Amino acid sequence: QVQLVESGGGLVQAGGSLRLSCAASGRRSFSFAMGWFRQAPGKEREFVAAITWSRGSTFHADSVKGRFTISRDNAKNTVSLQMNSLKPEDTAVYYCASAPRSTYYSRNYYSLNEYDTWGQGTQVTVSS
User: CA-CA 20 to 30 A from 56: which of 31, 71, 72, 89?
Assistant: First the structure.
C-alpha cells in the first residue's frame, strides 16, 4: 500500500503561483503513475495532471495546459504540481492520487477509477 501526503496549498492572488507537492511512502513500487485532481465546492472531482514514474510521461487537462506543470523526483518519491497564472476558477481542494499498473492507463489517466490511493487534499484559494 502507498501512503500520500500533499503540501503546498494556500491563498494567492490571481496571476500568482503555487507549487504543490505529494510525498509517497510505503510500497511505492505498487505505484505506476501519479495524478493530481481537484474538487471545487458543489462540483465533481476533476482531473488536472498526471505523470508516470518510470518514463515521466505527462498528461495535463486542457484547462491547465500552459499554466500548470507536473513533475516527479524518483529519488525522493515526490510529485509536484507547479501552478502559474492562477485564476479564481482554480480554487479547489487539490488531491494527489496513485495509480497501479494498468494496461489502459495511457487512455484512461483522467479517470478517477484508475487511482486506488488518495491523499487528504490541500486547499488552494485564488482571490480575484
Answer: 89
